[in-house]
Design brief:
10 helices, about 0% strand
Length: about 180
């Protein structure tokens, strides 16, 4: 191809190939998403949901991911993963409770508080109910709902007066959860 058009076509192809090579070197997509903490948390959550168990190594990985990540997506997958594990050892329960207590005071990330209140409701101890009570009036209805559940799981009938007003909460889920907890 000695015509000017042919040379332009070849030059264009060479330029395109050069740009592709540069892009591939600089922005080579990962062959696997397995290193992404949110993806790993989702994989572990799916396994825990399907089998009701995680190996010791998988539990440790999930714990490490949940402890070190500020990504709300990680917390969305980590909390249910912990909840689906049917037989946590006492040590694992203590680790999850400790993680939840650490996350409870993270006021910069509402998902951390949602994560924490949910896990405290399942893995907390009776005295932890005092830490959850302030969340009954949180601005986020999901956190209020989870606080109602946590108080129901950890508390006793003496706390019914704290839950009763939430039967008139503007959010339907909060109202329904408050009614369910009071019926117990």
């Amino acid at each position: 191809m000695k015509s000017p058009v042919g040379r332009l076509v070849i030059l264009g192809l060479v330029a395109a190939l050069g740009l592709f090579v540069v892009w591939r070197l600089l922005y080579q997509p990962s062959d696997s998403f397995a290193d992404d903490p949110a993806v790993r948390a989702e994989i572990l959550q799916t396994k825990a949901q399907q089998t009701g168990a995680l190996s010791e190594e998988e539990f440790e990985e999930l714990y490490r991911i949940a402890k070190s990540s500020d990504d709300p997506t990680v917390l969305v997958f980590a909390a249910p993963a912990f909840l689906h594990i049917r037989s946590l050892s006492d040590t694992q329960r203590m680790l999850v409770r400790g993680l939840a207590l650490e996350r409870l005071n993270d006021t910069t990330n509402p998902m951390s508080q949602h994560f924490a209140v949910t896990l405290i409701g399942h893995f907390g101890e009776k005295p932890d109910v005092q830490l959850v009570l302030p969340y009954l009036s949180h601005t986020d209805p999901l956190i209020r709902r989870d606080a109602v559940r946590a108080v129901g799981n950890l508390g006793n009938s003496k706390l019914a007066p704290r839950i009763r007003p939430l039967q008139k909460d503007p959010n339907e889920e909060v109202r329904r959860t408050a009614s369910e907890v009071l019926r117990k």
